[in-house]
Amino acid sequence: MAELDNCPKCDNIFVKNQFRDVCDNCYKEEEKAYQEVYNYIRKRENRTATMDQVVVATGVEEELIIKFIKKGRLKLAQFPNLGYQCERCGTTIRDGKICPNCVRELQTDLFTHNKEETRKQELKEKEKETITYFSVNKNRNK
After folding, report:
1. Could you give the CA distance from residue 59 to residue 40 in angstroms, rounded to a whole number?
2. Tens digits of residue pLDDT in 63-117
3. Which ranges of 1-142 does DSSP label H, i.e. alpha helix?
4. Mean pLDDT of the region 116-138
5. CA count, 13 A, side-chain hemisphere, 74
6. Distance in angstroms (rounded) separating the CA atoms of residues 138 and 69
7. 0.85 exceeded by pTM
8. 11: alpha, beta or left, given left = phi > 0 and alpha = psi -120 to 50?
9. If DSSP codes are grouped into helix, strand and coil, which group holds residue 75?
10. Please, what is the Cα angle at 116 between 115 and 119, to 5 degrees?
11. Cα separation of 81 and 51, whole Å?
């Protein structure tokens, strides 16, 4: 459902929807910037350009180029040297939010955490059994 919001670029009020996250004027500017970037990198001699080279040649901000990539408007399969930074470590990646190394580290940490939580739960259960057992025996002797 559409809702009113302030444009993150110019602060004008606009109707935000699932297709646009900026106002009409800023959207038009973004489209112009997209065409400039796309026209630059589609040229054979520029297909191997790095992100820095594209930014310098087109004057388009890196964040906006990354937005085009993340939205799927620029397909990196055709441009081998383009990418963006992993949100965790800063390594250049071509898809997702974090690099494969960070994914492995997070999975390992999660596995270790889950294993530790399971061990703690088992210790609690054993402690509970022991306390229950002693309580029952105390009442028998009286």
Report:
1. 11
2. 999 999 988 888 888 888 888 899 999 898 988 899 999 999 999 999 999 999 9
3. 24-42, 51-58, 62-70, 100-141
4. 75
5. 30
6. 70
7. no
8. left
9. coil
10. 90
11. 7
> How many Å separate Cα 127 from the centre of its chain?
42
Tokens of 118: 């399971």
- Angle at the Cα of 81 from the Cα atoms of 62 and 69, rounded to 5 degrees: 45
Backbone φ and ψ for 15, nearest 5 degrees, come out as -90, 110
Q: Exposed, middle or buried by CB within 10 Å (0-12, 13-18, 19+), for 138?
A: exposed
Q: Which of 51, 49, 29 is nearest to 41 (CA)?
A: 49
**What's phi and psi for 117, nearest 5 deg?**
-65, -40
